[in-house]
Amino acid sequence: MYSKIWNRSAECISESAFFSLHNQKLQDQLKYVSERSVFYQKKFGRAGIEIEKLKGLEDLSLIPFTEKEELRESQLQAPPFGTHIACEPTDVKRIYSTSGTTGRPTYIGLTRRDVGLWKETASRVFWANGMRPDDRVPLVVSPFVVAASYADAFENIGTSIPVGVNVTDRLIDAFRFAGATALLCTASYPLHFAKALKERDIDPKTLGLRIIFAGGEPGASIPEVRRQVQELFNCRLMECSGNGDYGAMVWGECEHQNGMHFMGQGVIHPEIIDPDSGESLAIAPGLRGELVCTTIDRECIPLIRFRTRDHVEVTHTECECGRTGFGIRIIGRTDDLLIVRGVNVYPSAVRDVVAGFAPQTNGIIEIQLHKAPPEGWEPPVCLKVEVNDGVEPSKELKLNIEDRLRYSLIFRAEVELVPEGTLPRYEYKANLVRKHY
Ligand SMILES: [Zn+2]
């Protein structure tokens, strides 16, 4: 019998030990960035913050937030890592890209130590999700996410089987011929996968799939989605989550399936804030707010009070499993992220690709969802695109836009060209996705 918990001293840490560990590590991290990161030297300087005067966790809320947009700007100024890099470029051992909202990827570097810590937190998560040494997991993740860290964790616990993206037959073979037992994917993917299996006359129940690690979208915690998937495959669907910026995999459900425990003890410090006032809120069951993460042990790209734009609800602060990390479920994202066949698609990135066809297009688009996600995200997604006055809405233009979207965002859309002035205009923030259900 295996232990139920991957790293008991971290995951079951007492409240007081957690506080003193994070208090010390935060101070060390702040000192490190103020000595080594030009980005934070400037940021702290502008805010009039003297790091040596801060008393650790109790003063964390005095430090300004780090926004994704600032990181992007910083990378444009000093590519590829930006002025927020805090280690020697030769110490960067791995570079990930994440899809940016502008369609240009942002790059995240990791040192050898960073790689090890990401592997550790991901191992805690997948172990809590139920993975054990005899499990084999095919890797079918999008090119934008941190696949290598997942592979590290799978190999730390059991076995990984790389199969690539959009290779359904190879994925099915991994189950039929290589003894795969688990699958990491977005919550909407299993329904699509079941359809592909049925088209090939394969009963999903015969696949030997034991656990689905479902991350990347709120769907997994919707009881109806979970029930449907678990029944179809006769497996357990477990939620997990993380982010390419602050940590590949940091949140995971235990066997009680009651929201994802925080599992980044000693590596990441989480806060939940009121997204409007920016005030840091006391963690308690039922609390809703935006997740903010601070790295407390990162060498290459430390992030202080990074706004994740994930809106979460605290599900619990105590659990029968013995883990002390509070639980959350993700209730949404501020920027209306779409997840199409496991690939994150930001509507603003779609708009930017379309805008590249100017002067034929004017940059006004609307993504129309005719069913609730995850079903509504099934490609091709309906995309209305305005053409400029006097431009013929030709079939050629439509196909060119569809091709460009598929090539640059791995996003399959059914484009409909409409005359200028057809779509609604918004004064404040463009509402690029409209629900038609
Ligand atoms: Zn638990």
Summarize the helices and strands and which ones pair or pack.
Elements: H1 8-11, H2 15-36, H3 38-47, H4 68-77, E1 94-98, E2 106-110, H5 112-128, E3 136-139, H6 147-157, E4 159-162, H7 168-178, E5 182-186, H8 189-199, E6 211-215, H9 223-233, E7 236-243, E8 247-252, E9 260-262, E10 268-273, E11 280-281, E12 288-295, E13 306-316, E14 327-333, E15 338-340, E16 343-345, H10 347-355, E17 361-369, E18 381-387, H11 395-409, E19 413-418, E20 433-435
Parallel strand pairs: 3-4, 5-6, 6-7, 17-20, 18-19
Antiparallel strand pairs: 1-2, 7-8, 8-9, 9-14, 10-11, 10-12, 12-13, 13-14, 15-16, 17-18
The structure holds zinc ion (ZN).
Zinc ion binds next to loops.
Strands in their spatial order, largest beta sheet: 5-6-7-8-9-14-13-12-10-11
Structural class: alpha/beta
The bound ligands are: zinc ion
* Extended strand count: 20
Radius of gyration, whole Å? 22 Å
Number of domains: 2
Oligomer: single chain
Largest sheet: 10 strands, mixed
- Text of the CATH class of the largest domain: Alpha Beta
